[in-house]
Design a protein that fits this description.
Distance between the termini of chain B: 29 Å
Bound molecules: FE2/S2 (inorganic) cluster, fe (ii) ion
Largest sheet of chain B: 9 strands, antiparallel
Largest sheet of chain C: 4 strands, antiparallel
Chains: A alpha+beta, B alpha+beta, C alpha+beta
Number of strands of chain C: 4
Shape of chain B: globular
Order of helices and strands of chain C: EEEEHHH
Distance between the termini of chain C: 10 Å
Radius of gyration of chain B: 23 Å
Largest interface: A-B, 38 and 50 residues
CATH superfamily of the largest domain in chain B: Naphthalene 1,2-dioxygenase Alpha Subunit, Chain A, domain 1
Number of helices of chain B: 13
Number of domains of chain C: 1
Structural class of chain B: alpha+beta
Number of strands of chain B: 23
Strand order of the largest sheet of chain C: 1-2-3-4
Oligomer: heterotrimer
Number of domains of chain B: 2
């Protein structure tokens, strides 16, 4: 196997941390700049199955199933004055760990797995929602910059424990 | 005094100073007031968050009404099963080896273990994980480990099968069940609503198919709020969904949802059917592709249904108490033309301030593939867990629930007067029920509350 | 010589199925690693299964853990035995 250099590892980690920071800060426009135009962004529905079944994830149905245009639409919506679900905004914190990097299908790509713990709280309610997932990303180097070309979010819940997904993973 | 769970698992103590008798009286009083005041279009906010009301709802509504469990297309083959809920009751919905659909209480007859723990699967027999009692997928008990030694000849297997729910009926692929053995037939229960359900379920010969599995999520809101929203609330689109209007996902006219027909179909069921706003051209029949449009002209049972459907672009409705339908023509993003999509809902009550949402996407099995894909994308982007319309609905319902919790809410009347007295019924309407020629109306919401009262006061 | 093993399971159990070649023919083996049972069916026996009804299998399942109803083997034992047999 072709190894991943220390340098690439550092770059990829920095990219993921910065991207998470943009989401937590609500800098959605800048976040869009982190994506390739052909991005596929999916959060498949999960269903409890027996061990014999290969995967609990349902290919045909996503909680999110997005391309660049639909992600842009979601961002544009937040920019209107009528996005009540996020105004006042949720306070989110993306905790990333267990970053694993492998060479990608193309020379300019890497595959990255990471664990995500997403904290969300709203208003003056001291309670919070936690979403836990494994993210499978493909990062591509475009003009010397890493960009997100694919994100598959494998959630740990089948019944989502938050009132909507007006936030991003 | 009872302890109850609030939304996030904190124990709360309800009405500590009141005796059980006092509390029963209080609920009775509140219900009588709801019943009296609904004719004036007044409803106390308290009904949207009260542990005692909720207890009574579980008993008197979810213990009696027909509850939607799923669609036949979710279990197409013998042995296919799925685990579903009637409020707190966990049931197995299974197609047996003969192809017949059965709904069985998911509780072993030996010591009560949950027999099926996966959310879906396929099996001809279920074997309980506790002691191994084995049931055929008809519910019949067939195997008991060490049966002879442990029970001799006294165990009457015929008497100890998995229990079917008292009533199960299917209307055009829609599987409903009731825990009340005395419940009327489903047809009688649905009444005039079947005429309108047909508009959605009978478009093509092959009929509807659920794609994948439902979205499931939990929101800290009372279950009646989404039911009320879908039964008649076209009015909220003006404000709640303004962001979507600005992005051209819905017609440019923010009042677009007003131009429709508002129908109380009887027994608390209701819907709205919205057409193009004046001066705007929208495609007939929701904008369904020509294959579907051609098919529906043959498949609808009545010619009037074709005429009604011709003018529909948006349809929303609720079957009392907690099954909703939404069939609307919207755009999947700001660059795409609108596409029709269909979603079914169950608002499963899990607490006075907590609802588990089940949201299915359905499409005609024989629709063209390109359309299925586009309709799916439209659904995911606009409704369901992350939908840009749905997100803002949830925010409103949870806000109402939060403020309905306190004491003020008890005599704080909410206004249910829209369209009252001045909006006249449309005598020419070809379908069943009471139809009003404007969807900015609250006749359906009032009818829903009246039906709710009847059940709650045990008068249904 | 043996063919690829197919595993088939649901939330209640799982079995391994494979073709086994005898010197002069072939059989289908069904193996339950959890209970430790194994059967090799010839084509005629298999064919006869095609006209059975669920009734037949419900009768088989009157003893849900097999006729001897011994307890399920620990998986470790099952694995060791299976390896030895191969
Ligand atoms: S509880 Fe099911 S067999 Fe004992
Ligand atoms: Fe809405």
């Amino acid at each position: 196997m072709v190894g991943i250099s220390e340098e690439v590892y550092r770059e990829v980690r920095d990219f993921l941390l910065r991207e998470a920071e943009l989401l937590d800060n609500g800098s959605y426009r800048d976040w869009l700049d982190c994506l390739t135009e052909d991005i596929r962004y999916q959060v498949p529905v999960r269903v409890t199955r027996d061990r014999g079944v290969e995967s609990e994830f349902v290919n045909e149905m996503g909680h999110l199933d997005e391309d660049y245009v639909s992600l842009e639409m979601r961002v544009m919506r937040l920019e209107t004055e009528y996005a009540w679900a996020e105004d006042p905004p949720s306070r989110t914190r993306h905790f990333l760990s267990n970053i694993r990097i492998e060479p990608g299908d193309r020379d300019d790509e890497v595959r990255v797995k990471s664990n995500l713990l997403l904290y969300r709280t709203r208003g003056d309610d001291p309670h919070y929602d936690l979403l836990s997932a494994e993210r499978h990303d493909v990062l591509r180097r475009v003009n010397g910059q890493w960009k997100l070309a694919r994100r598959l979010v494998l959630l740990d819940q089948t019944t989502i424990g938050t009132h909507n997904l007006s936030i991003l993973f | 005094m009872i302890l109850y769970q609030t939304t996030f698992g904190i124990k709360g103590v309800s009405n500590v100073t009141l005796s059980v008798g006092d509390r029963v009286n209080q609920v009775e009083q509140l219900l009588r007031r709801v019943k009296q005041n609904i004719d004036e279009g007044r409803v106390p906010a308290k009904i949207y968050n009260d542990p005692d009301i909720f207890e009574l709802e579980r008993e008197r509504i979810f213990g009696r009404a027909y509850i939607y469990l799923g669609h036949e297309s979710e279990i197409p083959h013998p042995g296919d099963y799925m685990v579903r809920y009637i409020a707190d009751d966990n049931v197995i919905v299974v197609r047996d080896e003969e192809g017949q659909i059965r709904v069985l209480f998911n509780c072993c007859r030996h010591r009560g273990m949950q027999v099926c723990r996966a959310e879906m699967g396929n099996a001809s027999h279920f074997r309980c994980p506790y002691h191994g009692w084995t049931y055929r997928n008809t519910g019949e008990l067939v195997g008991v480990p060490a049966g002879k030694e442990a029970y001799g000849d006294v165990l009457d297997k015929g008497a100890w099968g998995l229990r079917p729910v008292p009533r199960m009926e299917i209307y055009d692929g829609l599987i409903f069940a009731s825990l009340d053995a005395q419940a009327p037939s489903l047809n009688e229960y649905l009444g005039g609503m079947t005429w309108y359900l047909d508009l959605v379920t009978k478009r093509t010969e092959a009929g509807l198919e659920v794609v994948g599995a439902p979205h499931r999520w939990v929101m800290d809101a009372n279950w009646k709020l989404p039911a009320d929203n879908f039964v008649g609330d076209a009015y909220h689109t003006l404000m709640t969904h303004r962001s979507a209007v600005e992005l051209d996902l819905a017609p440019r006219d923010p009042k677009f949802a007003m131009y429709g027909v508002h129908v109380h179909a009887g027994n608390g069921h209701g819907l709205g059917m919205i057409s193009a706003p004046p001066g705007m051209e929208l495609p007939p029949f929701w904008g369904y592709p020509e294959e579907v449009v051609r098919a529906l002209q043959r498949s609808y049972p009545r010619p009037e249904q074709v005429e009604v459907a011709r003018r529909i672009n948006f349809l929303h409705g609720t079957v009392f108490p907690n099954f909703s339908v939404l069939n609307v023509m919207i755009a999947k993003d700001h660059r795409s033309a609108p596409t029709p999509m269909l979603t079914f809902r169950v608002w499963r009550p899990v607490g006075p301030d907590r609802t588990e949402v089940w949201s299915w996407f359905l499409v005609e099995r024989d629709a063209p593939e390109w359309f299925k894909e586009r309709s799916y994308q439209t659904y995911v982007h606009t409704f369901g867990t992350s939908g840009v319309f749905e997100q803002d609905d949830a925010e409103n319902w949870r806000g109402i629930t939060r403020v309905a919790r306190g004491l003020m809410a008890r005599d704080h009347d909410l206004n249910y007067q829209m369209g009252m007295s001045f909006l006249k019924r449309d005598p020419t309407w070809p379908g069943p029920g009471e139809a009003y020629p404007l969807d900015y109306a609250e006749a359906n919401q009032r009818a829903f509350i009246r039906q709710w009262c009847e059940y709650m006061l045990n008068e249904a | 010589m043996s063919d690829e093993v197919i595993e088939i399971g649901n939330e209640f159990t799982f079995v391994r199925v494979r073709k086994v070649h005898t010197r002069n023919g072939v059989r289908l083996e069904i193996h339950s690693p959890r209970l430790g049972y194994r059967i090799q069916l010839d084509p005629l026996e298999l064919e006869s299964l095609t006209w059975q009804t669920t009734e037949t299998f419900s009768r088989f399942l009157e003893t849900p853990f097999g006729p001897r109803e011994r307890l399920m083997r620990p998986l470790s034992e099952a694995l060791i035995c299976d390896r030895r047999e191969e």
